[in-house]
Write a structure and sequence with these properties.
Number of strands: 25
Strand content: 25-35%
Number of helices: 10
Helix content: 25-40%
Length: 393
């Protein structure tokens, strides 16, 4: 059996390692990156100068070869041919497969901002992006981050370690509106600003200023901010182009069933590129869970994916933010929200219940409680109102 995996991120490598443990065939993994597997969430620590690159790229190619995984770096896959059961490489050759996993991840989204193609406007996704941003930030003096989401805030954290002036422009009225409520967002903003980072909410970017090289931005309300380096962090989109061209069913990403199989038999998808029951989540725990299910079924087993409760975490020096499950329920009598804010300790906790079951939580600066609540939410644990109050107070 020959397994081919396209994509060397967390989904692709998790599947490859799971298949290697089964000793069930030849494993070929293709990635267009020049570095062996690295855990993408660690890029933020590397960018901020908290860890060295050898803590990001953990193992050499020889380690994977010893596991029976043939990793092909800097090898771009440009097509899939289901009728011949092969993939097409950019240099023109074809590679046959028995089972194929598409773990193509996602691509940074750049909104239609006038001047977004100017020099000095960057996105951030890969290790190479991080290396370039570190080099540019060391001499830029000031920088602007367009987007106050998880990646944007972590980028700002990295910039502030070397830049004297960092501004985050967030188009929504508050930071992380999907992950936090108003109290949590304000606490986070206060902390980010305490690091010396300027945060501007309700800031819709209209134009990148300057000639060939960016020199700043203009907002739709007319305000202008100057900086020679601009990071666009406006979310990601599924990297589903080659699947679409191959005639595989695609919506917002590659559509998969509970076995992580696509509309084409023998072709699977997992991670950021996959859409299951209408949802796609660009977070590592879900990518890993989907990859394990895909690997099992590629190897001839019968494993069904059960949707993982979405959870996101953000660690900026001195603050831990966890958002799990349903945190901003619509006005509905079925939901009960139990919040508690300790302003002096800068701790915020909120539990969301529905029909006697814990379905969501926000926890800021209590890491142990966040882990505990994540487990309870994943288990669909029953919880009384008094029990919830006891946990947050």
């Amino acid at each position: 059996m020959k397994y081919v995996i396209v994509g060397g991120g967390v989904a692709g490598m998790t599947a490859a390692l799971d298949l290697s443990r089964r000793e069930s065939g030849e494993i070929e993994l293709y990635t267009d990156e020049r570095h062996p597997y690295y855990y993408r969430p660690q890029l933020t620590e590397f960018f901020a100068g908290n860890i060295d690159i050898d803590k990001v790229v953990r193992r050499p190619l020889e380690w994977y070869a010893g596991k029976g995984i043939n990793v092909h770096l800097e090898t771009k896959v440009i097509g899939v041919e289901p009728e011949t059961k092969s993939i097409v490489l950019e240099e023109g050759s074809r590679v046959a497969y028995d089972k194929l996993l598409l773990a193509l991840g996602s691509l940074p989204f750049v909104p239609p901002i006038k001047g977004a193609g100017k020099l000095g406007v960057r996105t951030w996704r890969t290790l190479d992006d991080t290396l370039e941003l570190k080099e540019r930030a060391a001499t830029c003096g000031s920088t602007i981050v367009i987007g106050g989401g998880l990646l944007g805030l972590e980028g700002a954290r990295g910039f502030i370690s070397v830049c004297s002036d960092v501004t985050v422009l967030e188009m929504f009225p508050r930071l992380l509106p999907r992950q936090l409520d108003e109290v949590g967002s304000q606490l986070l903003q206060n902390f980010v600003e305490s690091l010396g980072i300027r945060v501007v909410v309700g800031a819709a970017t209209e134009e990148i200023l300057g000639g060939d090289h960016a020199m700043g931005v203009r907002l739709k309300d007319g305000r202008e901010f100057a900086a020679p380096l601009i990071l666009v962090s406006a979310g990601v989109r599924c990297n589903a182009g080659i699947a679409d061209k191959a005639g595989i069913e695609v919506g917002r990403g590659v559509i998969v069933n509970a076995h992580m199989e696509t509309s084409e038999p023998g072709i699977y998808a997992a991670g950021d590129v996959a859409v299951f029951q209408g949802h796609t989540w660009a977070i590592a725990p879900i990518a890993q869970a989907q990859a394990r299910v895909a690997a099992a079924n590629m190897a001839g087993e019968d494993m069904v994916y059960e949707a993982v409760v979405p959870s996101t975490t953000l660690k900026v020096i001195g603050i831990d933010v966890a958002s799990i499950g349903v945190v901003n329920p619509e006005a509905d009598a079925d939901y009960i929200q139990i919040p508690h804010f300790n302003a002096e300790a800068k701790v915020y906790k909120k539990i969301v219940l529905k029909e006697g079951v814990i379905v969501g939580a926000i926890v800021i600066n209590e890491k142990k409680l966040a882990k505990h609540l994540e487990s309870l939410i994943s288990e669909h644990a029953k919880m009384t109102l008094d029990e919830a109050r006891s946990l947050v107070n």
